[in-house]
Amino acid sequence: MKNKVYVYLFEEGKAGMKSLLGGKGANLAEMTNIGLPVPPGLTITTEACNEYFRKNREFPEGMEELLWQKLKAIEEKTGKIFGDPQNPLLVSVRSGAVVSMPGMMDTILNLGLNDETVEGLAQSTQNRRFALDCYRRFIQMFSDVVLGVEHFQFETALEKKKHELGVEQDQDLTPEALAQLIKEYKTIVKRAVGQEFPGDPKTQLLMAVRAVFNSWHNPRAEVYRRINKIPADLGTAVNVQSMVFGNMGNDSGTGVAFTRNPSNGERVLYGEYLINAQGEDVVAGIRTPQPIQKLEEDLPQVYEQFVNICRLLENHYRDMQDIEFTIERGKLYMLQTRNGKRTAHAAIKIAVDMVEEGLITREEAISRIDPASLDQLLHRRIDTSAKLNVIAKGLPASPGAASGQVVFDADKAEALGKEGKKVILVRTETTPDDIHGIVMAQGILTSRGGMTSHAAVVARGMGKCCVCGCESLKIDYEGKTARVDDIVIKEHDIISLDGSTGAVMLGEVKLIDPELSGEFQKLLTWADEIRVLGVRANADNPQDAAKAREFGAKGIGLCRTEHMFMAPDRIPIVQEMIMAETYPEREKALEKLLPMQEEDFYGILKVMSGYPVTIRLLDPPLHEFLPNIEELVVEITQLKMNNGDPEELSKLENILRKARTLHEFNPMLGHRGCRLGISYPEIYRMQARAIFQAVVRLTREGFKVIPEVEIPLVIDKNELAILRRDVEEVAQEVMKETGLKFEYTVGTMIELPRACLTAGEIAEVADFFAFGTNDLTQTTLGFSRDDAEGKFMNHYLEKKILTSNPFIVLDREGVGKLMELAVKGGREKKPGFKVGICGEHGGEPSSIEFCHLLNLDYVSCSPFRVPIARLAAAQAKI
Ligand code: ADP
Ligand code: MG
Ligand code: MG
């Protein structure tokens, strides 16, 4: 068997080899091959990494030899020699996972330096200060990443040195000071690890490669993988690349840029750079960088070349790119490119613009948007017309709004977040070690760092609001306070952030409903042209129905009537109805409810005129409308003790008696749904009459209304036949009374396994089915949702018994099978029989795909999820 090739030169790879070379390596290869200025380098494959772990952390056979052999090729190309005391080749060692994991694993720069090669570098560059600066950076990075020496020890030594010499900036340290610092650094290393800092470049390189491999399993990386559901067995590649230097003076620098604005999608180059700086200086937020456009003044030729390369890369990858570059003495080098992370808002704008620029197709545009990410856009925003107490402005790094208590460290953010508190994490800058706190925070505020700083990138990736580089904010970690001029913010004070403007506000702010941008509308219209699945909304009142229409719903798939019963002015009448001992008494209460219900239906049907509205008759058990038994007992006892009104007392005692009789051991499986209609036909008849009277009025007013009466919780054809007859009788009565003929249909919710199994028969007396997958999931799995999610669902997910929460993602293997049976049953009896879904699954992308595959007519979801459903339905078709 031929040995595996564990090492590739950049020119031997290409973009399609991501799984072998990692994202960074594959794109460096691609850039090399399309002729861009990439410093020569090589990539050690992910296979080598996986083999390394399989062999108990030993390098796979042949890897080292191949590494030295390919390094020779790099030496030839650069004209420098690794470890050579006169003309040393220095390299960076960079990790590169298959899926980009920003900031998750550390890069080592300037590797290959030691006491001799540093002199060679000083000689060959005629710049001793620079060479020493590289060396001290290298010792610090290598010791931190590879040897595990805490970097603050070096920072402290550096600060002390600057203080001694009375200088502010790192660049102001003299060569002598740097040389002393290097000595001190080595002492720190020796003290910490009990060994000399390794001087041999080959040893350095092998140690670094090993460290990159090992970092695949560091806690930061594991957290990131867990949050982003990245498999743990992909492994990381290692890129070894000849160094170029952005820290060689004022004609050198380093930066990062997006080819379009990752926050709002605008088609402008968007980035930052620092003159005379190296590597991570920009992202680490140590100095606040310059906007990329300023490079046109500093180095006009380089800027022009850079702009051209950005355009070229965008056309080549047909997507927005996130680019890292370095300028060494006026010469531009490309160090990385990848598809840039962006907010949902930007993703939509970029996709739509790219279709219009002729770069991608409409289908591609639609496929590129993650429907779940739209949630961000459909969230509420800050009402800027309200009075806002803005105390500071930072950079608008990640849009959205957030209010919460201030906390100054990630552990605290995590702890409070877990208690369900809303927190804003406030830091000078964030690092990958803060990730657990960022996850739990509502928003992030930093005082340093630009739009590409760690906080900004991570927040955008999570769709979380972030304001960064808020320089007027002075944070005192020890005192747990922050101040802006004379305003002091203490831990636990409430502040608000606006990630779209960068505003920082004291106190909580008012939020308003979102609107769909022009591009968003356009994308959704394209989606509508592609999809075959209809999209309706679940709405119980005219406001929600109006919102649903605005978001593009073509009808209501579920209008629940119980919420109408709960209104404060109705509950006493509803209770009167429940307390009724005789039929006439109940009729009297129902008569009072009738006009109220009629108004409800009138409002909703009117807003949705032209589209079907499925109205579900009363579903919950009656005791839900009575006060809680324990509370009643307390109230009665108090009344008795205070010698309260005897009439009130006897009324409460009556209610208590009734509540006790209605008490159920298992309400979910109790006296509810159509079982109420069977026991008390007059309730459903009243509801049917309210619907039909509203229909008559609206028809007379010239509205086209399409009512669909839906009977819940049916298990059998006979059950539905009886209730259907009731509804039809009422319809006949109303038609006779008003002299107006109107159309309506009667169907049922399919939400119990027996209904799925006997769907063929049920369809004989139904005009439509709508899956109620919340109950169908509960009854198919035998899980009560509230108990499962509160108590044991986590264990089922952790132990991988279930791959996802079946109340969120439709369980295709179980519930899905029953649905398939029901669809088949219904449509065999009546070809083209209408079937929809109105459970919460109707708004969840993977469940929507399943509904598409089942050939359902429509999905119905909450109004705010309608755009998500429209997009997901189109993706299911593509
Ligand atoms: P990350 O994945 O965290 O972005 P990178 O491997 O991209 O890490 O390295 C971070 C930064 O280090 C780069 O953006 C670049 O500025 C610098 N860097 C990496 N390799 C080189 C190199 N060969 N020459 C100069 N700078 C480099
Ligand atoms: Mg890094
Ligand atoms: Mg990078």
UniProtKB/TrEMBL annotation:
Binding, substrate: 560, 616, 751, 772-775
Keywords: ATP-binding, Kinase, Magnesium, Metal-binding, Nucleotide-binding, Pyruvate, Transferase
Positions annotated to bind Mg(2+): 751, 775
Pfam families: PEP-utilizers, PEP-utilizers_C, PPDK_N
Residues passing through the membrane, by range: none
InterPro entries per the UniProt record, alphabetical: ATP_grasp_subdomain_1 (IPR013815), PEP-util_enz_mobile_dom (IPR008279), PEP_util_AS (IPR018274), PEP_util_C (IPR000121), PEP_util_CS (IPR023151), Phosphohistidine_dom_sf (IPR036637), PPDK_AMP/ATP-bd (IPR002192), Pyruvate_phosphate_dikinase (IPR010121)
Catalytic reaction(s) noted: pyruvate + phosphate + ATP = phosphoenolpyruvate + AMP + diphosphate + H(+)
Keyword Ribosomal protein: no
One MF term in the entry's GO annotations: metal ion binding
Entry cofactors: Mg(2+)
Family note: Belongs to the PEP-utilizing enzyme family.
NCBIfam families found in the cross-reference section: PRK05878.1 (NF004531), pyru_phos_dikin (TIGR01828)
Protein name from the UniProt record: Pyruvate, phosphate dikinase
Organism: Thermanaerosceptrum fracticalcis
